[in-house]
Amino acid sequence: MNFHFCRKGSFLLLNIFFFVSTEAQQGLPIISKNYFRDPLSVPIQLSANFGELRPNHFHMGFDIRTQSRENLPVFAAAEGYISRVKVEKYGFGNAIYITHPNGFTTLYAHLNSFSKPLQEYVLQKQYEQQTWAIDLEIPSGIFPVQKGEFIAHSGNTGASAGPHLHFEIRNTATGKNYNPGLFGFEIPDTKKPVINALYLYDRRLSTYFQKATAIPITGENGNYFAKEKWIKVHSPLISFAINATDKNNNSPFNHGIYAAEISMDGNRIFGFQLDSISYDETRYVNACIDYSVYERQKKYIQYLFSLPGNDLKIFMPSATQGLVILSDTNMHNIQIKVNDLEGNTSILSFKIQLTSIDNNFTYPADAIPFMPGQENNVQGNSFEAHFSSKAFYESFPFSFKEIANKTPNNASEIVSLGDETIPVHDAYDMRIRTTLSPNDPLKKSTVMQLAVGNKKDYQKGIWSGDWMQGSFRSLGKISLIIDTIPPEIFITGWKNGQTFSANSKLSFRATDKGSAIESFVGKLDGDWILFSNRNGLYTYNFDSHCTVGKHILNITVRDIAGNETIKEYTFSKQ
Predict the structure, then answer these.
(1) CB 316 within 8 A of CB 270
(2) Domain hosting residue 340, numbered range
(3) In principle, which of 50, 193, 347, 399 could form an S-S bond with 246, CB 3.0–4.6 Å?
(4) What is the pTM of this model?
């Protein structure tokens, strides 16, 4: 039987012929399995492993449980020197980097506090630079450490959902992260990965513009099968995806899978293995999953194929990068193998057969063909957008709408740019024409707003005549809004005029109804003091800058539109 491809619109098959050859991952450097010690004094229990799927990134190390407690001692995993310290609101929170003589650097994150000498050093630099959030590169001779030396207390700072220690191992020269599981840490694991679900995609179409076909499966303990005797296929070009998880013996948490491969009739057509990933590559996670399903359902479907714009270097050599080409109506055997670092393996087996071809599909008539690997530009009456050659992972039909803005604080039309469930890899440039007159004083209070579902992101764009320019990394509804509402400041846990004992603190919350908080500055008797920021709670812990006696505290909060609120408070310290 001969099959003929039906081409309805200019998008069909574009994804197939844009495959970029990817090199197999280069061999890892020699790794000693007894060089690093456990960074805690409790047995390792993981709440997350290396390579787990996360929003916009792979998980880049181990999350080690701290028995639901904070302030456990953290120790240097090997000799070396503290080469970097970060303090930030989100991300790692408080973090230490140790550079080791074997060519690796270890990272310890979400810490509550550092060892006393390091804490004093960081505090000094924060006051010198008048900033709480800080990223310090530290010369090699200042803080040498020995293997097992105390360096910090564990915590729950930064983007952390509960007490734990985030631990990474990086190549010092390249910055590439390695799977800590390769280094011989004692984590008992005799459990096989679990394959929860199987999906099929018609690769004649963009994966963004189709609903994956769920194929019912059954099985347990490493042996899985399709419930149907064979899978009837209606496209000559298909690919598969799975939902799969892994566990080890001493943790109740489901983890990400380490490796998977798929073969047809005994020949491998795709595979990956998560030994190392760089932070430059980590956003490619959005090319490894059904992004639209995650955005809508918070569920991960993991591709067993590589999209043409996916430059991640984790894939095994294969001729078609996961594309199954069916040129006949014979029965074909498909086998999917999933394994962990300890070699525990699960296999899903089934048969497929091309029985007919369904050509009943179309793309929107007014859509613009966007391609991976090339720059894409789009413009309307009120906007211009420029996407780099790395912005998208596959070809798809791009659409936009310009909508009249009826909100009272509007300064432009609303541009509905593409589909917010389509991932964008790097930032794109966006220009919007304002509806304000050229000399309108409200232009200085105008900001750009990106709405993605219920989430809103703001930035102070750059004016060029009647146009404001900014950059974003998500599609959605973009507009210019006027923000003349100053931020609000609220005392938390104390009262104005209060008298404090020696060991105490001052806390505030700051909110902004018009856009977002840009800065929070506290001055004690005219001098800058250190306020930390944890989940929007700004706190000054009394230090040597707060002496005995009566004090005047000035708080200045500014939003990104430039609106400012200044309040004065008094208190006394005994």
Answers:
(1) yes
(2) 189-354
(3) 193
(4) 0.92
Establish how many alpha carbons lie within 13 A of residue 349's alpha carbon, considering only the half-sphere containing its beta carbon. Answer: 6
Q: Are 118 and 87 in contact (CB under 8 A)?
A: no
Q: Are residues 196 and 345 in the same domain?
A: yes
Q: Report the amino acid identity of residue 534.
A: R
Q: What is the pLDDT of residue 29?
A: 56
| pLDDT averaged over every residue in the chain | 93
Question: Which one, of 519, 533, 528, 534, lies nearest residue 554 by Cα?
Answer: 528
Helix or strand holding residue 127 (H, E): helix 116-129
- CB-count exposure of residue 166 (10 Å: 0-12, 13-18, 19+): buried
Q: Residue 185 has which token pair?
A: 């840490």
Q: Please report the beta strands in 487-562, taking only residues with DSSP state E, as ranges in sequence order.
A: 488-492, 499-500, 505-511, 517-524, 527-529, 532-534, 537-541, 549-559
Is 72 within 8 Å of 40 (Cβ atoms)? yes
C-alpha gyration radius of the chain:
27
Say whether both 152 and 229 belong to one domain.
no
How big is the chain, counted in residues? 574
Nearest to 460 by CA among 472, 477, 447, 449: 447
In angstroms, what CA-CA distances link 367 with 39, 212, 362, 419, 524? 53, 22, 11, 12, 58
Q: pLDDT (tens digit, 9 = 90+) per residue, 381-419?
A: 999 999 999 999 999 999 999 999 998 999 999 999 999
What the block records as the tokens of 479 is 């507009």
How far apart, in whole angstroms, are the C-alpha atoms of residue 370 and residue 308?
A: 13
Least Cα distance to 486 among 565, 567, 568, 566 occurs for 565
Looking at the structure, tell me whether residues 425 and 392 fall in a common domain: yes
Q: Is 350 within a domain?
A: yes
Element (H, E) at 116: helix 116-129
CB count within 10 Å of CB 193 equals 25
Q: Which of 183, 198, 222 is the last residue of a domain?
A: 183
How do residues 18-73 score in pLDDT, each as one tens digit? 333 333 344 445 688 889 999 999 999 999 999 999 999 999 999 999 999 999 99
pLDDT band at 502 (very low <50, low <70, confident <90, very high): confident
DSSP category for residue 182: G
Structure confidence by residue, pLDDT tens digits, 290-328:
999 999 999 999 999 999 999 999 999 998 999 999 999
Same domain, 349 and 202: yes
**Domain CATH for 512:** 2.60.40.1220
CB 351 within 8 A of CB 215: no
**DSSP one-letter string for 274-329:** -SEE-TTTGGGGGGSB-HHHHHHH----EESS--TT---S-BPP-SSTT-EE--SS
